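Sorry to interrupt, but I need a hand with the structure work. It will help me judge whether the discrete encoding reads sensibly. Write everything out right here, beneath this request:
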Amino acid sequence: MNLITDDEIKSIVKKHIRFSIFLVIVPIVFIQLIEYFSGDAQLNYLMFYITPISCVGACGYLIQGVLIDINASRSKNTG
């Protein structure tokens, strides 16, 4: 049984966390830009719905990507 080292796990997480942060930030910035250019302050209330959804999506992406890469590196190390 081959174990994965801490350095491998850290590099895998670092690889996926950048895009996860991007997935959280992009919808927020997009709504803020629409609000800025339209001048409608009510779009700010949309953030209460968009932010949790984008956070859950980013967490799902992060967990999925990390687990897939850990599985791939385990199978590469065993055979």
Notes: The radius of gyration is 18 Å. The chain has a mean pLDDT of 88. Helices lie at 6-38, 47-78.
